[in-house]
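Researcher: Let's continue the batch. This sequence belongs to Enoyl-CoA hydratase, and it's 263 residues. Same format as the previous ones, please.
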Amino acid sequence: MSDILLQERQAGIARLTLNDPKTRNSLSEAMMAELVVALDDLRRDDTARVIVIAAEGPAFCSGHNLKEITAHRQDDDRGAAYFTKLMAQCATLMQGIVHHPLPVIAEIQAVASAAGCQLVASCDLAIAAEPVRFATPGVNIGLFCSTPMVALSRNVTAKHAMEMLLTGDLIDAEDARRIGLINRIVPSQFLRQSVDELAAKIASKSKAVTKIGKEAFYRQREMTLPDAYDYAARVMVENLLIRDAEEGIGAFVDKRPPEWQDR
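Model: Same format as before. Here are the C-alpha cells for Enoyl-CoA hydratase:
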C-alpha cells in the first residue's frame, strides 16, 4: 500500500485518503497514478458500494505539482511531451471518477485549489469543513486553469465559474455551497462523521440501481431535451426489469424493508 494514498474499507465504504502533506497533497504523477489504480481496483470490488476521497494535512489538494512541471522545462522540447502526458493523465483520473460505477464523495478538510478544485468538482457529492476555501488561481501565475474549468463549469453557473477562473480569488465554503460546487458545510470536528453518515445512507441502497442512475445522470445532461427523455425512458425500462426494482416496489407495497441482491 502506498504511503501517499491511504486506503480503508469498512461497511461498503472505500476511503481513499491523499497523504502527501509536504506537497499539500498535489496531484503529482505518483498521486494520480495511485488514484487511477485504486479506482480501477474498486470497480472489481464486490464489497465496495461508495467511495470517499479525503485528505490529510494543511490542504485537501493544491493541484498539479509545479516543481515537477518546472523540472521538465529543461527537456529538449521545453516540456511539451511531458505536459501533454500529464494533462492526459489528469483527464483519465477525472473521467474515471465521473464514469465510475460507484458514487464518489469528496471530504474536504482544507483548501482545494486549481486541479484540487477540479477534483472536488469531479466527485458526485462534496462535503466541506467550515473554514475550507476554494480557488482556480492559475491566472495569477500565467497559467489559466483550463482543465479545472471543464469540471468547474459543469458544476456551477457560467458567470460564477468565469469569475473564479478570471480572478483566481479564493471563495469560502458558504460561497462554494451557494454556487453548487459543494453540497453542504459542517463543523470541522464533524466532517468525517457527516461524510460517513451520507456514505452509509447511499451504501444502503441497491448497488445495481445507483450504478444505473449515476451513469444515466451524466449521459443525459450532455443531450438535447428530447434525446435525454428518450434515453432516460429506455433506462427506466431497463431499471424496471432488474430484480432489485421488483423487490423494492414489492417491499414498498408490502410495507417491509427491501432485501437487495444488487442485480
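Researcher: Any comment?
Model: The beta strands are 5-10, 13-18, 50-55, 59-61, 104-108, 111-113, 125-129, 133-135, 171-172, 184-186.
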